[in-house]
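Hey,
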Amino acid sequence: MNTGIWHKKLAWAAAASGAILLVLTGALIASINRQYKELLRSTSSITDLRKLEEPLVALQEWAQSSEQDRGGADSWRAPYANLTSITRALDQSEPTVQEIEPSLKRLDFLFAHMEKQYASTPLAGSGSADGRNLEKEFRVEIKNTIAGLRAALASLQGRTESRSALLASGWRDFKLLLLIPFVLLGATVLLLTLFQRERSRYIRASAALSDSEERFRQLVESNIIGMMVSDFDGNVSEANNAFLRMLGYTREDLAGGRIRWNAITPHEFAERDEDAAAELKSLGACTPFEKEFIRKNGARVPVLIGSAVLKGESAKTVAFVVDLTERKQIENRLDESERFYQLLFERNLAGVYRMSLYGQILDCNDAFAKILGCRSKSEAACLSINEFYESESSRQEFLARLRERGALTSFEHQLRRKGGELIWILENVNLVATGDGMPPVIEGTIIDVTERKNAERALRASEARLRLMIEQAPAILWTTDDSLRLTSAIGRGLKALGMRPNAFNGIGLQEYFGGDEGALAAHEKALKGERVDYDIDWSGRAFHSHVEPFVDIDGKPLGTIGIALDVTERKRSQEEHAALQADIQRSAIEWVETFDSVESPLIILDAAERVVRLNRSARRLSGLSLREAQSRRFVSLGEGEPWNAARQLAVQALESGSSMTTQILESTGKCWDITADRYLLPDSEARIIITIRDITELVRLQQSIRKNDTLFAMGNLVAGVAHEVRNPLFSISATLQAFEARFGGNRDYQRYTDVLKAEIDRLNELMRELLEYGRPKTLELASASLGEILDEAVGACESLAGRLSVNVLHKVNGPIPDLLADRRKMAQVFQNLLENAIQHSPPGGVVVAEAKAGGDNGSGWVDCCVSDSGPGFNSEDLPRIFEPFFSRRRGGTGLGLSIVQRIINEHGGSIVAGNRPEGGAVVKVSLRFSRN
């Protein structure tokens, strides 16, 4: 039941009561007015006028009772008080009409004021038309009453006879007036009692209904399923919070009518909505279906919606909406995951397969097929894996391991591809039960690791070579852990210290180095990340050492690693040069006395390579006076050698800060020893002292000594050979000569003696070549001109060439630097080559010896070719022509070219034999020339 209905009923009851009260009050007031008029007419005394106070009092009480609910009683208190004060004043005397005229005016004013107060406080129900009419009548009555009072006062003295009747009638009306409020009070109490009883029943029913509605509303609002009530036109009248949250709308949007289900439905679902509406109208419910709603922010939300028509309201439907966003996301992720794993399966670089225990390939990807040498996975599926194993036993061994363990991880073995190529594979495989009573299947992956295996073998070989290089290097390499204990020590340098590799592993550096704090401090710095160089003397040897941190791939220090180079000889050389430099510097202090007396040229340069001072020998060498030479650039002192080499040496000494020494051999045979020393003056200004010594005679003396030593050794050997071989040959030759002297006239003997003489000559030649071939491999290297060597060789062959009528030509193309060679042996090389070419050339033939600089841009090689016009080498003989004792020439020993090859090899050169396209043989000799 609605509370508003009861409020309306209560208002109507109050209005009716007010109307009744107003009518009765009006009637009583009219009666009182008549009584006042009659009283004023009939009363000649002013005391009758005071009886008018009683109805006025009743009127005031009524007004008080009728207005108490709205505060109207307060508006009547002031007029009543004024009326009381007037009547009390009248009680003090009985004035005449003229005397009470002012009081009546005051009373008239009072009634006017009462009328004004009444007008400002309308009675209950005065808002209706009847109430307004009653109010107007009351006002008229008040005015009439006042007028009547005035008229009654005029005729008061002539109308006293009706006083008693009028008083009785007035008293009756007054009692009726007093009775009316009690009657109305009883009726009101009765009405309120009935209203309260009905209201209590209504409240109980409303409370029960409210509880039911609240429970239902809580059920609806707490439901995770969206619910909405709408009509077929799209208007949504009610919705729960789940529906509003789903679409991002608020209660204000719902109350404002801004949610319409057809407006938030994408156009592609309009036809489906029409079908659902038709189904609702015909069946009262529709089958749930999927669609999308447009959220307030414009995004779409997939939903599952089912609707039914509300009972009793065919135009309204209730819909239950389930948010499918999470389910759709899960479905999308599942689809994406499925696509990803499918793609991973198909495009995996590793071969993925599934096969039976019997080897039948049930499924595989393209990578698996490619590894096995198949064109596609369909081709591989037609084959058995057993075909790719080297043997049935290897396949059975694999299956036995798999059955035993259930899975194999990182299992490496070999398979043979379809084309027969043997490859290494890395396999991860599981034995998977099918669960249907069938035999288990094999699932796994394979990776072709053939390249890795080859790389590992190459790496191991490289590591072995590297270890061999390190072990054979003339140095010492070692490592320590983070507590500075030796973990390894290798290198050929250990042998010089009398130590074996890794002999001191586990020993701490403090114990090993003893009191050498420098080495220990260097390793401690290396542990902290520094790279340290230091020098150490150990067991009479000097070492320059370098140590640095030894870290893992993450940069975490594991210890230290160091290398030590044996610099004993270099240090000794540096000490010698330092001593020489000290001597020169000491001499420089006394240069005023001794500088010009020095025989070797001495030149002092500043840091700008300008001449500060030069001695007499240097001035003589440059051809300049002291004044002309001072302050000149060193480069302008002279051209050629030794000036060019001295200038280069000065630049090197200035840059390095150390002594530099070199030797220069001129084409004229003159040899210079040049030294450049750098020193600092007290003011830190750099100076360079260049010393140029002519050591030509010294070099010649050294060469002479070496040559004498060689000749001495050769003399001993030749003496021994002569004693052991030539004495018998001499005896044979003497016997043959005696035989010829006695039997020379006999021609039968002549042919035998000629053969014997030729063989004796051959034996002598053989002994000469044997001596040369067996001579020790010692070279007397010196700067030698190739042109001069060729001249010497050609001169030695002139007799043979003249005897065989062969022309010998030789030429040198362009400037060729001098060779650093053994001149005698090199001359022997070209003499042997020329003699061999002459002997194989026909009469009138030509033998040419030609030399030129070879390589790219003068790379340091000289090529010399000796060619003839003979038949050339047989192609089958070319691989053997340098073998000892191999010869196709009658009477040849087969040692000539062997000796030539040995000498060329001793000089670091090469020799190649071949045939010319136009005919004839050619032998090419390549030699390195000196860079001094």
